[in-house]
Design brief:
Blueprint (H helix, E strand, L loop, with lengths): L2 E4 L1 H18 L1 H20 L5 E2 L7 E6 L2 E8 L2 E9 L11
Parallel strand pairs: 1-5
Antiparallel strand pairs: 2-3, 3-4, 4-5
Helix pairs in contact: 1-2
Length: about 100
């Protein structure tokens, strides 16, 4: 099974999401949403062909939605790289820096 690697951008995105959710809805909600996102990433490690193919943005890129966030995963050798996470309205201006 592939393992999930988090890029620096992904770590930053997750921290930003957690900070926002903590402020707006509390720590329990923030922890819960991040647990869901990380859990989905682990499931994709077991099933790397799952998710929406996003080759129009980057070869081997896939995305999936968690609540109001779009998560981007890129398959790289035996690992899945968690590239970035955006709120849904932001996806119209996505520029990935891996």
């Amino acid at each position: 099974m592939a393992r999930v690697l988090f890029t620096p951008l992904a770590h930053n995105d997750l921290q930003t999401i957690w900070d926002y959710l903590d402020e707006e809805a509390g720590q329990e909600t923030a922890d819960g949403i991040l647990d869901i996102i990380e859990g989905k990433c682990e499931k994709l490690a077991a099933f790397p062909e799952a998710g929406q193919i996003r080759n129009e943005l980057l070869a081997n890129l896939r995305s999936f939605v968690v609540k109001s966030y779009v998560v981007f995963i890129c398959r790289f050798q035996m690992a899945l790289m968690f590239c970035a996470c955006f709120t849904v309205p932001e996806t119209s201006k996505v520029y990935l820096k891996i």
